[in-house]
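A student in our group prepared the protein record below, which I am reviewing. Here is the record exactly as it was handed to me.
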Amino acid sequence: MLRGRWIGMLLLCLVVAGVFAWLGQWQLGRAIDTSPPPPGVTEKVLPLDQVVKPGEYLDAALVGQRTQASGSWIPGDFLIVSSRFNDGAEGYWVTGQLRIAGTAKPTSLAVAVGWAADEAAAKAAVQRLEKTADGSVVTVKGRLISDEGPVAPPKDQPTRMDRMSPAALLGFWHDTAGLDVYRPFLASTAALGGLDAISSPAPEEHSSVNWLNIFYAVEWAIFAGFAFYLWYRLAKDAWEREVEEFEERRSVADPDPEAL
């Protein structure tokens, strides 16, 4: 182990172990949130522009944040999203394009305005809501939720939507030239158009400890220790081979008299 070759190997293992130790420390630092959001923070109603900006992804800690926004409904953009569950019952959401008031550039927010148990009731609500889209400014309160991501519709129903995705809704909206759109959507607290209120309970409080990151940190520590063990094992194997070769040479040079 004191030969130059194995000392060089030890130095290399020290470098590798140091990198692994740094990675473990980095994972450990990410595992503990030193400034977690206070309990109940999502239940305070905040203006939309204080929570997220158009085009930005919603921070995980803000998913479910109660928010309010003011604007006007765009006629012709009340659309139905299927496969929506309300307290375990499957049904439909009616959604609308809310054109935010007081912005320098046209900006819209997708809003789920209510739930219906069947498609016929959802379509009837759309007709009622279209009559209210007269350009008047309304204020909507609800929970801000991340885009669920669009999925391809069935071939026989090209306009069907099974995910609540502002990106998908944008493809059906009107008056979208130069439009800024919020990536998350708002699940309205109060139902509109004779629909049922959407069940949207407060999100669960997040733990300040991320156990997955702690597991990764332990893994890196094990890898760092294994780097030293690998050096020791390789050096010992080389030593054992040399001992075996020495014994073989000695037996050839000095054969056993009894064997002769």
